[in-house]
Amino acid sequence: MLIDRAGNVAGKYRKVYLPREEVEAGLTPGNDYPVFRTDFGTVGIMICYDVFFADPARALALKGAEMILMPIWGGDETLAKARAIENRVFLVASGYDHPTYIMDPDGERLSVGPRPGAAVATVDLNRRYLEKFLGEMKARRPKELRVDVK
Question: Are 64 and 90 spatial neighbours (Cβ–Cβ below 8 Å)?
Fold first, then answer.
């Protein structure tokens, strides 16, 4: 659930990728990647195991997410960094056995929170993050993605 500043439900997301143990326990996955317009920008949510797969972050970015919120029990920090970089989005992780941090679209941590605790940083959603030799990649990568190759 995404709760706004007034305490109201601003949206909900059901984790699409479930580990086998959660499926065997009777949980069922979600089937979409919604984005939510907030008073500070457009956000998407990935939950825990979603980080192991490229398509949740890609779908959220294609739908306009500027920031991905990722509550996570534990997971691969390198893959989390890759999701931020490959989709040119901010990634905000709230972890248990994974650090709590705010990461920019270059994969740089702007803030790391204590355990337990929160990470706090000021982000500029209007800043352009440019690749050294290729320029602005946020709009370019999806256009050049080869979905025809199997």
Answer: no
